[in-house]
């Protein structure tokens, strides 16, 4: 039987640490969302790349988790970390090849780090508060094996 809180997560209060990690995640996320277009369109426009290409490659990925973050879904915070990995790769690459843009690169890496740490721990803490659990791989494999063996007996 599901509890009322599982059906409506807004009724489950957040602990102070959960709120803190959510704020860190949102600051990092909004920071990247503001930095990338400002940097790539206004401050240091990329020569040889169309605005459409820059938008699709550098800005559009950040828009994918927007709805889930606004709706406060812990699962969205968790998978948003896959997106933020691209910004780590971009930032660390530019550390080597574009030292003249060091200020923007450091900001990108700072915001990406904040988003990664905040999203990781917010998803973990909020998931625990809501009673959400991801089945461990070994348990999932055992369940699948048992189901497969049961099907083969028929």
TrEMBL record:
Transmembrane segments: 21-42, 48-66, 78-98, 104-123
This protein's UniProt keywords: Membrane, Transmembrane, Transmembrane helix
Keyword Transmembrane in record: yes
Domain of life (superkingdom): Bacteria
Listed InterPro entries: DUF2069_membrane
UniProt name for this protein: DUF2069 domain-containing protein
Lineage of the organism: Bacteria, Pseudomonadati, Pseudomonadota, Gammaproteobacteria, Alteromonadales
């Amino acid at each position: 039987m599901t509890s009322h809180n599982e059906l409506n997560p807004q009724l489950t209060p957040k602990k102070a640490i959960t709120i803190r990690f959510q704020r860190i995640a949102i600051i990092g996320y909004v920071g990247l969302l503001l930095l990338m277009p400002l940097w790539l369109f206004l401050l240091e426009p990329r020569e040889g790349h169309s605005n459409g290409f820059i938008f699709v490659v550098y800005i559009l990925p950040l828009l994918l988790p927007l709805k889930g973050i606004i709706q406060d879904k812990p699962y969205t915070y968790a998978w948003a970390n896959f997106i933020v990995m691209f910004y780590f790769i971009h930032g660390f690459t530019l550390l080597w090849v574009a030292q003249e843009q060091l200020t923007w690169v450091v900001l990108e890496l700072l915001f990406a780090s904040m988003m990664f740490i905040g999203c990781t721990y917010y998803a973990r803490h909020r998931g625990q508060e809501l009673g959400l659990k991801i089945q461990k791989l070994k348990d999932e494999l055992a369940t699948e094996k048992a189901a497969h063996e049961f099907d083969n007996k028929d």
